[in-house]
Structure prediction request, 188 residues.
Amino acid sequence: MARNNERRSALADAGIRVLAEEGARGLTHRAVDAAAGTPRGTASNYFPTRDDLISALVDRIGERLTPDPEVVASRDTRPPDRALFADYLRDVVRRLSADPHVSLALFELRLEAARRPAIAATLGAWRQRAFQEDVAFHGDSGLPGGQTELALFHYAIDGLMLDHLTAPLDTGLSVDAAIAEFVDRILQ
Prediction:
C-alpha cells in the first residue's frame, strides 16, 4: 500500500489529540481513526503496532515543536546575551502553550515511559537528541551558560508548563516573569 504523508501526519495529529484528551490508555488505533475521521483500520495500516503509533507520535510532536526558522534567523543579529536567551525561552514556552495538545501528549508519553520500557527508549532517545541539538545551537550561538545550565532550563520549563497546563499555582508570577527569574538565577 502506498503511503500518503499527509494522511500519516493527519493520523499522528489525531493520535496526539487522543493522547492529550484521553491519556495513554485511551490511545488505540480505533480511537485514532475516529479522531481523524478515517475508516476503521486506517491507523493500523500506517502504524501496525502500538509501538509504531507511539513512535510516530513522538516524531510528529518533534515536528510540531520545531522552532520557526524565520524566528530563529530574526535573532541572528542580536548579541548573544541573557536577554536573547530569555527570548529563546519565551519562544519555547509560546510554542508549548500555543499547542496544548502537543504539550499534554508529551507529558502523557513521559508518564507512560515510566511504565513501559519501549516508550521510555523511544521517547528517551528523542529527548536526548533534542537536548544535544539545543546544546549545540546554544554553543554555536555563543549564548551564556553551558550544558548544565541548559539542563536546568529544561527542568524549569517542564515544571512551568506542567503547572501552566494543569492546576496552576496562584503565585502572582506571570509566565514571562518566571522566565526572567529563571534566566537571572540560573545564569549568574
